Amino acid sequence: MPILSLASSLVASKNRIPTILIDEDFASGTAGFSVTNATVANSSGTLQVTASATSGHAYKAFLASPRTTFTYSIELSALQVGSGGGHIKIGLAAGQSQFLDVDATGVDTYTGTFTTADATAIVLNLHTDVNGKWTKW
Asked: Which residue in 15, 55, 89, 108 is deepest, having the highest Cβ count within 10 Å?
């Protein structure tokens, strides 16, 4: 499942307790994710993204403070055979990847950090690379 949390503030001497932005089992729906060239559904506690065109994706926007570092831990829990996997992108708008572009080619938990530069909003994009195939996040 996607977990995106605030890791630290602009000032190194000021430590913040991480704030989890997404920690979903999707039991009550798709948690406000929108789509481009895809459909989304809850599938056994995961967000299933099925592409209806190449690089279909689900996305969700968040407010951010400039120059803030985020940590992410996003699990690709299943993918359809022959799907080619997916991409985790974080950018300024749907489909964009100014801050992060991770090639998620297999079932795994993808973790790391990124910094927002001067952005006051970011968008998490979960892509399925091949038309007609799905990934479960």
From this structure: 89
The answer on pLDDT for 52 being more than 90 is: yes
DSSP-derived secondary structure letter, 25: -
Beta strands at 19-23 and 38-43: parallel, antiparallel or unpaired: unpaired
Closest CA to 58 of 69, 47, 74, 45: 47
Assess contact for 125 and 97: CB atoms under 8 A. yes
Closest CA to 137 of 20, 14, 30, 8: 30
- What's the CA gap between 26 and 10, in Å, rounded? 32
Question: Quick one: DSSP state of residue 136?
Answer: E
Dist. CA 93–CA 79, nearest whole Å? 25
Per the CB < 8 A criterion, the answer to whether 110 and 74 are in contact is yes
Q: What is the pTM of this model?
A: 0.82
